[in-house]
């Protein structure tokens, strides 16, 4: 075997060792040497990639909010406002979740806690926003729910077509 063929054979196993967390202790020196020669062993996305995806999703949700609002304006001003508001609260909730989840670098426990707090805040915003739209402002429920579903549909398409 040549040196190049051996490195190609070792690379997937070294990445697996890194991914499983087995690079602690004596293996870390070998992993560091491999990393210097062949580049990074990191398999997880960075915070910057998460922030970038979250920003794209929020912008797409805002565009969907405007489109839903304009589409439901054909049924009347209140229907258009309800659809816009339904999709807008999804965009606000997603932005809040992203701000909490991708706020800072930390360990697994801290990251999970930030994500959990972000999800709780997201549901508070969604329920509170829907209550505001339906109860306080007395806007029609069907356009509001259609805007909410349209806002969430962005998540499905954003993760399906990441490229």
From TrEMBL:
Recorded topology in the membrane: Multi-pass membrane protein
Keyword line: Cell membrane, Membrane, Transmembrane, Transmembrane helix
InterPro entries per the UniProt record, alphabetical: ATP_synth_I
Transmembrane segments: 57-75, 81-103, 115-135, 141-161
Localization per Swiss-Prot or TrEMBL: Cell membrane
Protein name: ATP synthase subunit I
Taxonomic classification: Bacteria, Pseudomonadati, Pseudomonadota, Gammaproteobacteria, Lysobacterales
């Amino acid at each position: 075997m040549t040196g190049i063929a051996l490195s190609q054979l070792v690379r997937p196993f070294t990445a697996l060792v890194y991914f499983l967390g087995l690079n602690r202790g004596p293996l870390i020196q070998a992993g560091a040497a491999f990393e210097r020669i062949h580049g990074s062993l990191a398999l997880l996305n960075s915070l910057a990639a998460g922030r970038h995806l979250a920003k794209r999703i929020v912008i797409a949700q805002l565009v969907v909010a405007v489109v839903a609002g304009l589409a439901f304006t054909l049924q009347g001003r209140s229907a258009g406002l309800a659809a816009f508001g339904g999709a807008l609260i999804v965009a606000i909730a997603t932005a809040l979740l992203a701000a909490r989840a991708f706020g800072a670098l930390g360990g697994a426990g801290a990251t999970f806690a930030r994500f959990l707090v972000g999800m709780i805040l997201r549901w508070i915003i969604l329920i509170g926003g829907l209550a505001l739209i339906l109860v306080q402002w007395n806007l029609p429920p069907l356009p509001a729910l259609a805007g909410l579903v349209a806002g969430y549909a962005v998540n499905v398409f954003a993760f399906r077509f990441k490229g």
